[in-house]
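[Meeting: bench + compute handoff]

Bench side (C.D.) handed over the final construct sequence. Compute side (W.E.) agreed to return the predicted structure before the next meeting so the bench team could plan truncations. Sequence as handed over:
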Amino acid sequence: MNRREFSVLLPLLAAGSALAPGADGETPAAPAAPAPQLPKLVSGRYPPIAPAHPHPSPRMSQHFLMGMLPDNIRLEAHFTRLAPGAPPEPIGTHKHTEIWFIHEGTARLMTAGVTRDVAAGEMGVCIAGDRHTIYNASQTEPASYFVVTVGPPE
């Protein structure tokens, strides 16, 4: 799948995550508090926002963008590099859908209670509301991935 084909899927993913029922089968209620004001995104180039980390860390992320698309859809993108044996991120859930493109190594992705190894060149998806975590499957080689998240403001 190339970038152009993927970009066609973004509105569908966003619509699906906004309309997806919660774990109990009910449509989630609207948030009680107003969403934070994020910048409106426009077509163009988005270089990295800031250096990954000033000091080496087992999990280093480089952020590219976080903002709002038309129709109140939040979009965020970052690149993460995991050192061998880096601890997993905490298991969590979000209102947005997350898409991981594995760049190098093998990441171990748990979504909705199912754990899968996702190798370089492959993609993993976690639909909004599913419990998930991701970590390096190797104790000896690094793993890295590019993440795109799309969904309602949080």
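W.E. noted at the follow-up: The chain is about 10% helix and 40% strand. C.D. will use this when planning the next construct.
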